[in-house]
Amino acid sequence: MLHAALESGANIEHVFVAGDEPLEGLKDLPPVIRVDQRTLDSLSQTKTPQGIVAIAKFIDHDASELERLLPKSGPAVVLVLPSLSDPGNAGTLIRSAEAFGARAVCFGPDAVEPYNDKVVRASMGSLFRVPIVRYEDWPVFVAASRAAKLQIVAAEAGGTDVRDVTLPQRACLVIGQERHGHAGLPPEDIDTVVALPQRAGVDSLNAAVAGSLLLYEFERAHAPDSSTRSGTSRA
């Protein structure tokens, strides 16, 4: 995680290291503070810390910067999480956003804090490589999206099968909570509602799974030539 932060240019303010733990391959660090294990345990939010804790400045952007973060033309998909509260799901979706070429991940005021420790860990470093946007007011975010020429596509169990939809090249993909979908957002702001086909008897998919599959569908629709992909993943 620290490697990812440094490679992205994040501003690392402090680094705490347990005892004589070596720091191989880490450059451009601020002065390292050596502490005992008990002190490190009190700084870390995990039960079994890896021997190093770093503090970095926030890296998020305001919604007004959305247009600047995107290419002027061509495909651009932005993942939007207005109210997703589960940190594990949010972190996984940030990771999937990077894997499938999303240009940014946007957190609404009712969503989990993007700097929640579980979000950060679940993102596996993607948090530092995909622009994070935060907004406090949905109408302001919609205005920023329209300025960037983005259509708003929401995931909902009752929506149109994503395989039957011509996905827009420039879009905000909205992933809500499993139970409520995009409830609470003005219907007039939603351009398209899509769903993933699934077998009868299954209530709903996990938000991270559904969002990841839809991000893949967008990436596949916009980059059908497999030569554009750098490789396959290994679990």
Explain how this protein is built.
The structure is a single chain. The protein is of the alpha/beta class. It folds into 2 domains: 2-56, no CATH class; 61-223, SPOUT methyltransferase, trefoil knot domain (Alpha/beta knot), CATH 3.40.1280.10. It contains 7 helices and 10 strands. The chain is elongated and about 60 Å long. It starts with a helix and ends in a 13-residue tail after the last helix. The relative contact order is 0.15.
- Give the CATH H-level superfamily of the largest domain: SPOUT methyltransferase, trefoil knot domain
**Oligomer description:** single chain
- What is the CA-CA span between the terminal residues? 18 Å
Q: In terms of structural class, how would the helical and strand content be classed?
A: alpha/beta
Count the strands?
10
Low-confidence stretches: none
Order of helices and strands: HEEHEEHEHEHEHEEEH
Mean pLDDT: 90
Number of helices: 7
- Enumerate the strands of the largest sheet in spatial order, edge to edge or round the barrel: 4-7-6-5-9-8-10
Largest sheet: 7 strands, parallel
Query: Which value, in Å, is the CA radius of gyration?
Result: 19 Å
Q: What percent of residues adopt helix (DSSP H or I)?
A: 25-40%
> Could you say what the CATH topology of the largest domain is called?
Alpha/beta knot
Please tell me the total number of domains.
2
Q: What is the CATH architecture term of the largest domain?
A: 3-Layer(aba) Sandwich
Globular, elongated, flat, extended or rod-shaped: what is the shape? elongated
CATH class designation of the largest domain: Alpha Beta
Strand content: 15-25%
